[in-house]
Write a structure and sequence with these properties.
about 375 residues; alpha/beta; Rossmann fold; 7 strands; globular; binds S-adenosyl-L-homocysteine
C-alpha cells in the first residue's frame, strides 16, 4: 500500500528522503533503507513508542507514601514553575457555569473562587473575618479572599516551596499570610477562625475522619466550613467494577492521593464529629467544572512558548500528565468521580459523636 502512495511520481522521491535523513545523521552509518521499508516498520515503531510511553507513565507514578511525599511533589512542581505557567496561581479546576460555556481557562479558575464564596454564604460576612485556607497551594484563592472580600486569611500547605512562592506573590499590605502546616494535625488551637475553607486538598489526606475533625476543630462556634473536593462515587452499595478500579488506581497513584472519599461519606464524617450544627449541605459541581480537564491539555497546545521555556525535560514532564487529565475527564464524565461541595456550620457546644447520627442532611 505504501508503494502505491509513494511511488516514483511522488515528491520528494523516497531516495531523496532517505539521503536527507542520512545527511542529517551523517555521522551514523545508516543502512540504505527504502522509504517503503521505513513505512512498513512505522506501525511497529509507533506501537513500540506507545508501549515505552505507557511503561514510563506507569513506572514514574508518584504514589502517595506520606505527607512528606506530597510535600516533595508540590515542592518540585513549584520550583520548576511549569504548573504555575499553565495553571496560574490556582491549582484547582475552573467554574464554567451551569450549563457550562466556553471561558478563558484562568478566568474560570478565579470565577470558581467567587462561586464558592457565594455558595458558602461568605459574601455576607464583614471585612476582617478570619479565614483559614487549608491546602492553599501558592495562595491564588487566599489572595482573592483577602483582596476582594477584605478577609484576614491564613493559608497553610504541606509544601515549603509553595509557602515561599505564595509569599513572593502576595503584595505587601494584603491581609494574607502563609505557613507550612499539616492539615492532619493543625497547629492552631480549637475555635481559631470564623471560616475554614479548602479546595481540592482532601484527596491527599490519608484519614478523612481526622481531616474532617481538624477542619471543624479550628472553626469558631457559629463559624462556616466550605470545602470543594474531588470525590469518588459512593461504592458502598455498588462496588467499583474492574475498569473503574483500574482507572481509580491511576488517579490515586499518579498524583499522590491515598484515596478519594465519596460526597456522602465525607458529609457523614463531618457530621460524625459531633461538631456540626443541624446539617451538612452538599452539592455536585461536576458539570460546572468538567471542561477544566480538556482545557488543561488545550493550554499545552495554545501556549507553545512553554515548550521553549521549560525545554525537553519540561516537555516530557508536561506530556506525562496528559493521560491523567484524560483519565480524570473520563472518570468525572462517566460518574466514577464527582466534584463535591460541602458547607457546614460549627456547633456551639460540642456533643458526642453518636448524637450527630440524627442530624438531617440536605443534598
Ligand atoms: N487549594 C489550592 C491548592 C490545591 S492543590 C488551590 O486551589 O490552588 C492541594 C494542596 O493541598 C497543595 O497545596 C498541597 O500542598 C496541600 N496539601 C496536601 N496535603 C496536605 C497536608 N497534609 N497538609 C496541608 N496541606 C496539604
Amino acid at each position: 500500500m505504501s508503494g502505491n502512495l509513494l511511488g516514483s511520481s511522488a515528491w520528494p522521491h523516497p531516495s531523496v528522503l532517505t539521503s536527507l535523513i542520512q545527511a542529517l545523521l551523517g555521522f551514523v552509518d545508516l543502512p540504505r533503507f527504502s522509504l517503503q521499508t521505513i513505512l512498513a516498520l512505522l506501525p511497529g515503531i509507533v506501537l513500540a513508542l506507545l508501549a515505552v510511553g505507557i511503561a514510563f507513565y506507569l513506572l514514574t507514578a508518584r504514589r502517595y507514601q506520606s505527607s512528606e511525599s506530597v510535600a516533595r511533589s508540590y515542592d518540585q512542581w513549584t520550583e520548576d514553575g511549569i504548573l504555575e505557567f499553565y495553571w496560574g496561581e490556582h491549582i484547582h479546576l475552573g467554574h464554567y457555569g451551569s450549563p457550562p460555556h466556553q471561558k478563558d481557562f484562568l478566568t474560570a479558575k478565579s470565577d470558581f473562587v467567587h462561586e464558592m464564596v457565594r455558595w458558602g454564604g461568605l459574601d455576607r460576612l464583614p471585612p476582617g473575618t478570619t479565614v483559614l485556607d487549608v491546602g492553599c497551594g501558592i495562595g491564588g484563592s487566599t489572595r482573592i479572599l483577602a483582596r476582594e472580600y477584605g478577609f484576614a486569611v491564613t493559608g497553610i500547605t504541606i509544601s515549603p516551596q509553595q509557602v515561599k512562592r505564595a509569599r513572593e506573590l502576595t503584595p505587601e499590605g494584603l491581609s494574607a499570610q502563609f505557613l507550612v502546616d499539616d492539615a492532619m494535625a493543625l497547629s492552631f488551637p480549637d475555635a481559631s477562625f470564623d471560616v475554614v475553607w479548602s479546595i481540592e486538598a482532601g484527596p491527599h489526606m490519608p484519614d478523612k475522619a481526622v481531616f474532617a475533625r481538624e477542619l471543624l476543630r479550628v472553626l469558631k462556634p457559629g463559624g462556616i466550613l466550605v470545602v470543594a473536593d474531588w470525590n469518588q462515587r459512593d461504592d458502598r452499595t455498588v462496588p467499583l467494577n474492574p475498569w473503574e478500579a483500574l482507572v481509580m488506581r491511576q488517579l490515586l497513584d499518579q498524583w499522590s492521593h491515598p484515596a478519594f472519599a465519596s460526597i456522602e461519606e465525607f458529609a457523614e464524617l463531618l457530621e460524625a464529629t459531633g461538631l456540626v450544627d443541624t446539617a451538612v449541605v452538599t452539592a455536585d459541581w461536576t458539570e460546572q467544572t468538567l471542561p477544566s480537564w480538556l482545557d488543561s491539555i488545550w493550554q499545552g497546545l495554545v501556549r507553545p512558548e512553554g515548550l521553549v521555556r521549560f525545554g525537553p525535560v519540561g516537555f516530557v514532564k508536561s506530556l506525562r500528565e496528559v493521560p491523567t487529565f484524560l483519565l480524570m475527564r473520563l472518570a468525572f464524565g462517566a460518574g466514577l468521580c464527582r466534584f463535591g461541595m460541602f458547607r457546614a456550620i460549627r456547633k456551639a457546644i460540642p456533643s458526642s459523636a453518636g448524637a450527630s447520627q440524627d442530624v438531617e442532611r440536605r443534598a
